[in-house]
Amino acid sequence: MLIIGIAGGSGSGKTTVVKKIIASLPKNSVSLISQDAYYRDNGHLSAEERSRINFDHPSSIEFNLLINHIDLLKEGKTIGMPIYSYLTCARAEETVPVEPKKVIIVEGILILTNPRLRKRLDIKVFVDADNDDRLMRIIWRDIEERGRSFREVLDHYEKFVKPMHLLFIEPNKRYADIIIPQGGENQIAIDILTSKIKMKLNE
Q1: CA-CA distance, 190 to 194, in Å (whole number)?
Q2: CATH number assigned to the domain comprising residue 16
Q3: pTM of the model
Q4: In the chain, pLDDT over 90 holds for what percent of residues?
Q5: CA gap 91, 156 in Å, rounded
Protein backbone atom coordinates (compact mmCIF):
# COMPACT_ATOMS: atom_id res chain seq x y z
CA MET A 1 0.00 0.00 0.00
CA LEU A 2 1.21 3.47 -0.96
CA ILE A 3 -0.10 6.44 1.03
CA ILE A 4 0.10 9.81 -0.71
CA GLY A 5 -0.61 13.13 0.99
CA ILE A 6 -1.70 16.02 -1.21
CA ALA A 7 -1.71 19.39 0.55
CA GLY A 8 -1.79 23.03 -0.55
CA GLY A 9 -3.67 26.22 0.12
CA SER A 10 -7.41 26.59 -0.19
CA GLY A 11 -8.28 26.95 -3.87
CA SER A 12 -4.85 25.81 -5.06
CA GLY A 13 -6.18 23.08 -7.35
CA LYS A 14 -5.68 20.01 -5.12
CA THR A 15 -8.94 18.41 -6.21
CA THR A 16 -8.01 18.73 -9.90
CA VAL A 17 -4.60 17.17 -9.23
CA VAL A 18 -6.22 14.28 -7.32
CA LYS A 19 -8.74 13.63 -10.12
CA LYS A 20 -5.99 13.56 -12.76
CA ILE A 21 -3.87 11.16 -10.70
CA ILE A 22 -6.79 8.80 -10.12
CA ALA A 23 -7.68 8.89 -13.83
CA SER A 24 -4.08 7.92 -14.73
CA LEU A 25 -3.91 4.90 -12.42
CA PRO A 26 -5.52 1.46 -12.88
CA LYS A 27 -9.25 1.37 -12.19
CA ASN A 28 -10.24 0.63 -8.57
CA SER A 29 -6.63 0.95 -7.37
CA VAL A 30 -7.13 4.18 -5.39
CA SER A 31 -9.11 5.13 -2.27
CA LEU A 32 -9.47 8.81 -1.41
CA ILE A 33 -9.62 10.27 2.10
CA SER A 34 -10.62 13.91 2.40
CA GLN A 35 -9.32 15.89 5.36
CA ASP A 36 -12.54 17.94 5.18
CA ALA A 37 -14.52 14.90 6.35
CA TYR A 38 -12.65 15.05 9.66
CA TYR A 39 -13.62 18.54 10.78
CA ARG A 40 -14.85 18.43 14.35
CA ASP A 41 -18.61 18.12 14.79
CA ASN A 42 -19.89 21.59 15.75
CA GLY A 43 -23.54 21.08 14.96
CA HIS A 44 -24.46 21.96 18.55
CA LEU A 45 -23.23 25.56 18.15
CA SER A 46 -25.45 28.50 17.32
CA ALA A 47 -25.35 30.06 13.84
CA GLU A 48 -23.33 32.98 15.21
CA GLU A 49 -20.83 30.64 16.90
CA ARG A 50 -20.52 28.54 13.74
CA SER A 51 -19.70 31.66 11.71
CA ARG A 52 -16.62 32.16 13.87
CA ILE A 53 -15.19 28.64 13.34
CA ASN A 54 -11.67 28.78 11.93
CA PHE A 55 -11.62 25.93 9.39
CA ASP A 56 -8.05 26.82 8.43
CA HIS A 57 -6.51 26.12 11.86
CA PRO A 58 -5.11 22.62 12.60
CA SER A 59 -7.19 22.42 15.80
CA SER A 60 -10.35 22.25 13.65
CA ILE A 61 -9.38 18.77 12.43
CA GLU A 62 -9.86 15.57 14.45
CA PHE A 63 -6.43 14.26 13.52
CA ASN A 64 -6.57 11.34 15.97
CA LEU A 65 -9.54 9.85 14.10
CA LEU A 66 -7.97 10.52 10.70
CA ILE A 67 -4.70 8.85 11.72
CA ASN A 68 -6.57 5.92 13.27
CA HIS A 69 -8.47 5.41 10.01
CA ILE A 70 -5.23 5.41 7.99
CA ASP A 71 -3.76 2.82 10.34
CA LEU A 72 -6.86 0.64 9.95
CA LEU A 73 -6.59 0.85 6.15
CA LYS A 74 -2.94 -0.22 6.38
CA GLU A 75 -4.14 -3.24 8.36
CA GLY A 76 -6.47 -4.12 5.49
CA LYS A 77 -9.68 -2.99 7.20
CA THR A 78 -12.51 -0.92 5.71
CA ILE A 79 -13.25 2.37 7.48
CA GLY A 80 -16.32 4.57 7.77
CA MET A 81 -15.23 8.05 6.67
CA PRO A 82 -17.39 10.80 8.22
CA ILE A 83 -19.67 13.02 6.16
CA TYR A 84 -19.30 16.69 7.11
CA SER A 85 -21.56 19.57 6.11
CA TYR A 86 -20.19 23.12 5.88
CA LEU A 87 -23.76 24.43 6.03
CA THR A 88 -24.58 22.87 9.42
CA CYS A 89 -20.97 22.37 10.66
CA ALA A 90 -22.10 18.91 11.75
CA ARG A 91 -21.37 15.32 10.82
CA ALA A 92 -24.09 13.12 9.40
CA GLU A 93 -25.07 9.93 11.19
CA GLU A 94 -24.10 8.00 8.07
CA THR A 95 -20.50 7.38 6.97
CA VAL A 96 -18.85 6.55 3.65
CA PRO A 97 -17.15 3.14 3.46
CA VAL A 98 -13.54 3.42 2.28
CA GLU A 99 -11.79 0.18 1.37
CA PRO A 100 -8.05 -0.51 1.56
CA LYS A 101 -6.55 -0.22 -1.93
CA LYS A 102 -3.06 -0.22 -3.42
CA VAL A 103 -3.01 3.58 -3.28
CA ILE A 104 -4.52 5.74 -0.54
CA ILE A 105 -4.66 9.47 -1.26
CA VAL A 106 -5.12 11.81 1.72
CA GLU A 107 -6.07 15.30 0.54
CA GLY A 108 -6.46 18.54 2.48
CA ILE A 109 -5.01 21.95 3.29
CA LEU A 110 -3.69 20.97 6.73
CA ILE A 111 -2.41 17.41 6.34
CA LEU A 112 1.28 18.40 6.43
CA THR A 113 0.85 20.34 9.70
CA ASN A 114 0.57 17.17 11.81
CA PRO A 115 3.87 15.32 12.48
CA ARG A 116 2.15 11.98 13.25
CA LEU A 117 0.24 12.12 9.99
CA ARG A 118 3.32 13.13 7.99
CA LYS A 119 5.11 10.00 9.22
CA ARG A 120 2.39 7.86 7.64
CA LEU A 121 2.69 9.47 4.20
CA ASP A 122 4.99 7.71 1.72
CA ILE A 123 4.87 10.62 -0.73
CA LYS A 124 4.09 14.18 0.37
CA VAL A 125 2.86 16.60 -2.31
CA PHE A 126 2.23 20.34 -2.06
CA VAL A 127 0.05 21.93 -4.74
CA ASP A 128 1.07 25.57 -5.18
CA ALA A 129 -0.80 28.41 -6.87
CA ASP A 130 -0.79 32.21 -7.06
CA ASN A 131 -2.77 33.89 -4.28
CA ASP A 132 -4.97 35.72 -6.80
CA ASP A 133 -5.89 32.46 -8.52
CA ARG A 134 -6.66 30.81 -5.19
CA LEU A 135 -8.87 33.71 -4.08
CA MET A 136 -10.91 33.57 -7.30
CA ARG A 137 -11.52 29.83 -6.83
CA ILE A 138 -12.43 30.36 -3.16
CA ILE A 139 -14.98 33.05 -4.06
CA TRP A 140 -16.65 30.82 -6.65
CA ARG A 141 -16.63 27.73 -4.42
CA ASP A 142 -17.88 29.39 -1.23
CA ILE A 143 -20.74 31.15 -3.00
CA GLU A 144 -21.79 28.12 -5.05
CA GLU A 145 -21.19 25.31 -2.54
CA ARG A 146 -21.24 26.86 0.92
CA GLY A 147 -24.01 29.42 0.60
CA ARG A 148 -21.91 32.47 1.49
CA SER A 149 -22.40 35.95 0.07
CA PHE A 150 -19.59 37.74 -1.76
CA ARG A 151 -18.95 39.97 1.26
CA GLU A 152 -18.95 36.97 3.62
CA VAL A 153 -16.39 35.20 1.45
CA LEU A 154 -14.04 38.20 1.47
CA ASP A 155 -14.47 38.74 5.23
CA HIS A 156 -13.75 35.05 5.87
CA TYR A 157 -10.70 35.16 3.60
CA GLU A 158 -9.30 38.21 5.38
CA LYS A 159 -9.95 36.94 8.92
CA PHE A 160 -9.14 33.25 8.53
CA VAL A 161 -7.94 31.93 5.18
CA LYS A 162 -5.10 34.36 4.42
CA PRO A 163 -3.51 34.56 7.92
CA MET A 164 -3.80 30.80 8.50
CA HIS A 165 -2.28 30.11 5.09
CA LEU A 166 0.73 32.25 5.97
CA LEU A 167 1.03 30.80 9.48
CA PHE A 168 0.38 27.08 8.95
CA ILE A 169 -0.01 26.00 5.33
CA GLU A 170 2.71 27.81 3.36
CA PRO A 171 5.50 27.00 5.89
CA ASN A 172 4.71 23.28 5.68
CA LYS A 173 5.63 23.28 2.02
CA ARG A 174 9.14 22.45 3.24
CA TYR A 175 7.96 18.96 4.22
CA ALA A 176 6.81 18.15 0.68
CA ASP A 177 8.72 15.67 -1.48
CA ILE A 178 7.13 17.14 -4.60
CA ILE A 179 5.80 20.67 -5.22
CA ILE A 180 3.36 21.19 -8.10
CA PRO A 181 3.27 24.84 -9.21
CA GLN A 182 0.18 26.15 -11.03
CA GLY A 183 -2.05 23.51 -9.49
CA GLY A 184 -4.01 21.22 -11.76
CA GLU A 185 -2.79 23.05 -14.87
CA ASN A 186 0.72 21.62 -14.50
CA GLN A 187 0.27 18.41 -16.47
CA ILE A 188 4.01 17.69 -16.66
CA ALA A 189 4.39 17.66 -12.87
CA ILE A 190 1.26 15.50 -12.52
CA ASP A 191 2.65 13.05 -15.12
CA ILE A 192 5.97 12.85 -13.23
CA LEU A 193 4.14 12.19 -9.95
CA THR A 194 1.93 9.56 -11.56
CA SER A 195 4.98 7.82 -13.06
CA LYS A 196 6.61 7.77 -9.62
CA ILE A 197 3.47 6.22 -8.13
CA LYS A 198 3.40 3.52 -10.82
CA MET A 199 7.09 2.74 -10.20
CA LYS A 200 6.45 2.39 -6.47
CA LEU A 201 3.51 0.07 -7.11
CA ASN A 202 5.65 -2.15 -9.36
CA GLU A 203 8.50 -2.51 -6.84
Answers
A1: 6
A2: 3.40.50.300
A3: 0.88
A4: 49
A5: 22
